[in-house]
Amino acid sequence: MDAPTLERRLANFRASLPPPPSRPADLGTDAADRLLDARERTDRLAAALDAEAIWTPDGSLLRIEPPRRHLPIDRARLARLPGQPPADTVLVCLDTETTGLATAAGTLAFLVGLGWWEGDWFRQVQLVLPDHADEPAMLRALTDLLPPDAWLVTYNGRGFDWPLLVTRYRMAGRPAPPMAGHLDLLPLVRRIFRHRLTDARLRTVELSLLGVRRIGDVEGWEIPGRYFDVLRGGSPTVLVDVVRHNDEDVRSLARLLVEFERGLGDDDARRRADPGDLAGLARAFARERRLDEALDCLELAVCRVGAAGPEPPATDEAPWWAPAASADFGGPPRRSRPPVSPQPIVARWTEERLLVERAHLLRRLGRVRDAADAWFALATGHSRLAASAAVELAKLCEHHLDDLPAAIAAVERGWQILERRRRLGRPEPRLEADLVRRSLRLRRRRARIAALRPAGRDPAARSQARRSGFGMRASETA
Q1: Model confidence over 381-433: pLDDT tens digits?
Q2: How far apart are CA 369 and CA 367, in angstroms?
Q3: Rounded to whole angstroms, how far apart are CA atoms 64 and 114?
Q4: Distance (Å, rounded) from C-alpha 386 to C-alpha 161?
Q5: pLDDT tens digit string along 274-319?
Q6: Which of 23, 89, 157, 271 has CB atoms 3.0–4.6 Å from 161's, for a disulfide?
Q7: Which of 212, 200, 57, 42 is nearest to 131 (CA)?
Q8: CB under 8 Å to 161, separation ≥6 — which residues?
Q9: CA angle 442-446-450, nearest 5°?
Q10: Where are the beta strands (DSSP E) in 6-156?
Q11: Start and end residues for every CATH 3.30.420.10 domain found in the chain
């Protein structure tokens, strides 16, 4: 430990003691002046933020506790949804305001907001760091506020907030508080609600899902500069908007959980949900291998897709969640984003997309015949999707139903669709190459079978084809 840090810690420790009647004789003039400046800065900041100044042996700290909000939540219904913690665990919402966007040693969290439920009431506490040297006091207070059996609830906290705090604990020579789990709402929002979001920023999610519009809110890229201005002796009132911004962030985490529970928590709520939300929920269930619940969501979404309104116009710009789209790292908003995809991409869930998801899910459930029926229905059109459905139908007939004639008929159906698209000026070279390979393999296999067994003398094969029915239907379609 270097000398200036030790001197500052000694000064903060003496500051926690009752003030003596006169300047201590054992302190030099410079040390005493710095001590008085630190106390004055902390008192000014506490007055501006309406906070309580706390003096500890580790340093000073500001604590802000706004009034509790009535925000009931049904934890039992929430626990039945994918990715959610058990109903009997404590949920602690956490959000930080930092001096930068990195998680390395040069960045620290000068404001940590916490929130948790006490019955139907949501209680919040904010910890503010008056100066860099007071960080040990904040870390100790944060440890005291986090129960070891609690689950953290954050928004991008797995990638930023919590790794940053762990780094600060390590630099202070202390272990990070143990947690029972971590619920990051950003992946959840992307998986379920991205079809109706322009981006994944928390402010956009508030407006689209919660109907909350912030008025006069500070931009995130301005926050570090405001804190540095205060450290350089500027007016502490510039942090008032930062504290309000953090307060809204923490409360939005709780409101998102409530919206998730009320909008998708049971069958009655799902009957009124957006079809795209149900499709995203089905994917979330499928990730946890809860395939029956995923299939129920998809079938309900197919029934409700007609109530979603007309399809949005196609655009040449990739949606924000597509791999081809450039990442958004914050900062001042860009005026425009250049097109990055040569093909039109529609982000909304359509009936065809839902049926494709359903066919894949039926296959995962082992309901091969139902999956083949689903692909057969999709292969009756003339789109690229119909050609892909014909390929999937050929796979099932060849490898799972052992129906070679139906597989060949499905390949021929795919060729008809692709030939039509080629005449219209919309070739599909990758699908065509796949069909060439598949057709050659199927015909070679049929020739080998014909060489081993004379045609028309295999009653078992004819009986199997009659039982399946796929050969006749695929041939009629072709």
Answers
A1: 888 999 999 999 999 999 999 899 999 999 999 999 999 999 999 998 998 99
A2: 6
A3: 10
A4: 45
A5: 999 999 999 999 999 999 999 999 999 999 886 545 444 444 445 5
A6: 157
A7: 42
A8: 94, 95, 96, 109, 154
A9: 170
A10: 52-56, 59-64, 69-70, 90-98, 109-118, 121-128, 150-154
A11: 3-17+27-264
Contact criterion met (CB below 8 Å) for 141 and 63:
yes
At residue 115, what are phi and psi to the nearest 5 degrees?
-155, 140
Q: Are 149 and 89 in contact (CB under 8 A)?
A: yes
Q: How far apart are the first and last CA of the chain?
A: 81
Cite the beta strand spans of 119-172 per DSSP E.
121-128, 150-154
Token look-up 């919590």 returns 162
Work out the angle at residue 214's Cα, subtended by the Cα atoms of residues 208 and 217, and round it to the nearest 5 degrees.
Answer: 135
- Locate 352 and state its tokens: 């065809």
Which residue is it, tokens 């909008």? 263
Nearest 5°: the CA angle 370, 349, 273 is 90
CATH T-level assignment (fold) for domain 3-17+27-264: Nucleotidyltransferase; domain 5 (3.30.420)
